[in-house]
């Protein structure tokens, strides 16, 4: 391969150096030179793509628990993506707000500020669903059962689907990444099996909804927040991730997006 490249390069140099205004057929020689160059064009991956990402959703997007108040997982994912040769500058827009549910997020998708940001983004990362589940848990804590949650899941799926449809109306081309939820009670409540079962059902419902649409990706983070005794992953409120938790979350997102350059499959560039 190297000898072939040397021969081609030498031929191009000789052709270009032999061109002068005094030679007849100058145009044809130049044309032949350009033809040879086109056959050995620089691959598109040589030019990094700039990418704009809108992060929207609840406290996991806002970054509650982040000691540096820099947006939770966003700065970690930003630096990881920019290390890829195929990505240039990454611009993140944080549209997260603590306490947001699928219902309240749907209302925000009519705000002009949100519409402008989302319509100009190539990727949209969504964290929602945890507060929906918590509201059901609070109402039924004394009578906690999987059957109770099963009835609520249909309502949740309906609301989530409305959000995805609305996002698609705002931006038909952007890739949509939906992040799953985790069990924040594992660090101090270990004997409620129903919570784990409900969380599994909730994540499965989220994945079922998002998988119905093109250019979407579901990222499960539930296993990241199982305490292993080595380091704390929850903030002082024992509910939201701390810096370590957000870094783990960013790592999981990066692995999912970088697998076979999944981010490029999700995003469309002009």
TrEMBL record:
Residues 56-248 form the SGNH hydrolase-type esterase domain. InterPro entries: Ester_Hydrolysis_Enzymes, SGNH_hydro, SGNH_hydro_sf. Transmembrane segments: none annotated. Gene3D superfamilies: SGNH hydrolase. It holds the Pfam family Lipase_GDSL_2. GO terms for molecular function: phosphatidylcholine lysophospholipase activity. It comes from the Bacteria. This is GDSL family lipase.
